[in-house]
Amino acid sequence: MTFLAKFENCIDYYGWTSKEQLCHLQASLEDAAGQVLWDAGKQGSVYEVIRLLKSRFGTSNEEERYRSELHSRRRRRGESLQSVYRDVRRLMALAFPGQSGSLWEIMARDAFVDALADPNLRCRILERDPSTLEEALKVASRLEALSRSVGDEDPNERWDESGRRRNRQTRSAAEADNELELTRLLNELREERLRMKEQIDNFHRRQREEVEAVRRSQREDLEALRLSLKDEMADVANRLAENVSRSHQSSSDRWYKNRTDNMEAPNIGPTTTMESPRATAVPTTNRRRREDRCHQCHQPGHWKRD
To answer: Would you tell me which of 33, 52, 155, 188 could form a disulfide with 29, CB atoms 3.0–4.6 Å apart?
Structure first.
């Protein structure tokens, strides 16, 4: 259809003759369309070639198929209004070839608003009562722009992952279910957080109690050890004092006894002479030094006064 319209335009502009028309037409046919030349033969005319092209590639017998496509045409996900408009106009031209007028425009308008697959938008467009397909496109573009400017839902959100249009009520129910599920999950997370916090607090409390018990036990052990050492030191000091006291007493007793013995001993022999007290005391002192023990180290052989 488009090719023939362009070809007729060129005929009118350049003023081709029948022979020139056939030549240019045959030269422009390629691929599958070029096979028509085999059937037309060398003596074929322009009209014969055009008849063969219409019979093989035309739409004269496919109006019903295009009407079915027009009736089932729906806006796809992410598709613009202009794309729907162009496709509806193409299908109208193929489904009703050669038709025009106000009735044709009304049928095209209805097919366009039905193809939008949005009952709300369809009602709002028909409220403006557009009389042509172009007016319906203009109203739909304005309404969709206004809906986006006031924060209405994105048209792309009206479609599911498979490209099918979502039911608004079904979508609302699904969103409500999702909100309930999210609320339940949030509550579970809060409860789990409280349980974990309680467990951590209990662990820290038990740890502090254990540390305090260990420290208290250590303090008690140190105090008991201190008291034991104090008692042992006091016992050692008492025994040392008793030993020193006994040593002093024994030393004094021995010294007193030796001196008494020396004073009571008789003079024997005719040649005994009176010695001086100093000479007599010397042997006693030496014997005392040999028999007594030191007051400091308690060893015999020497003697140191207290």
So the answer is: 33
